[in-house]
Amino acid sequence: MKIKKASFITSSSDYTQCPPTGLPEFAFIGRSNVGKSSLINMLTNHGKLAKVSGRPGKTQLINHFLINDEWYLVDLPGYGWAKVAKSEKEKWGAMIHDYLKLRENLGCIFVLIDSRLDPQPIDVEFINWLGEEQIPFALIFTKSDKQSKNKTQSAIAKYKRYLRQFWEELPPTFVTSSMKGEGKEELLMYLQQLIST
Ligand code: GDP
């Protein structure tokens, strides 16, 4: 797939406010600073579609972008800001959980993981929740340019071993670098596949 057109549609504070469900949609989520905005901008060939390096406490909204007049790319608010109050975290949880469970045209959620880190409890908890709820997802290991290929591969193998404690079957995985453009074609091909099925 080539992304020829990408435009911001709306920000919603609740899944009921999201655009009509006539088009398929795919969402991206991850810990703050994992590289989600950079990845969205890389995929859409757009320098500034998603804002890079957000601040803690910024408004936590579900952002819809229309791609090629064909599908929605959804930028979900990042989790894991240490400085965010508990009440904010709970609000985030309810909003995201409702969206993920109830949004009927959601085809897949892409969970971004920093390829340099060992499995982090906050990510694993979220991944396990997705598995329990049977919500289709894929993993994206980001910032691969920050270390050698070998290191990234062994970090991913370690991650998979860790998840196998809980799950027999693991989701599709991708490796990306928004700096180098790595993983872009693979992700776009996968999205095309999901749209066509
Ligand atoms: P977000 O908070 O998840 O949206 O993360 P951002 O996209 O804002 O990125 C956080 C920081 O990581 C910024 O300083 C980016 O320039 C940097 N970054 C994001 N992706 C990459 C990548 O693939 N490679 C490198 N080297 N840095 C990246």
UniProtKB/TrEMBL annotation:
Gene that this sequence comes from: engB
Keyword Magnesium: yes
GO molecular-function terms, A-Z: GTP binding; metal ion binding
UniProt entry keywords in alphabetical sequence: Cell cycle, Cell division, GTP-binding, Magnesium, Metal-binding, Nucleotide-binding, Septation
UniProt-listed HAMAP family: GTPase_EngB
Record protein name field: Probable GTP-binding protein EngB
Organism: Fulvivirga sediminis
Family per record: Belongs to the TRAFAC class TrmE-Era-EngA-EngB-Septin-like GTPase superfamily. EngB GTPase family.
Domain of life of the source: Bacteria
Xref: Pfam families: MMR_HSR1
Cofactor: Mg(2+)
Residue span(s) of domain EngB-type G: 22-197
InterPro entries in UniProt: G_ENGB_dom, GTP-bd, GTP-bd_ribosome_bio_YsxC, P-loop_NTPase
Gene Ontology terms: biological process: division septum assembly
Task of the protein: Necessary for normal cell division and for the maintenance of normal septation.
Species lineage: Bacteria, Pseudomonadati, Bacteroidota, Cytophagia, Cytophagales
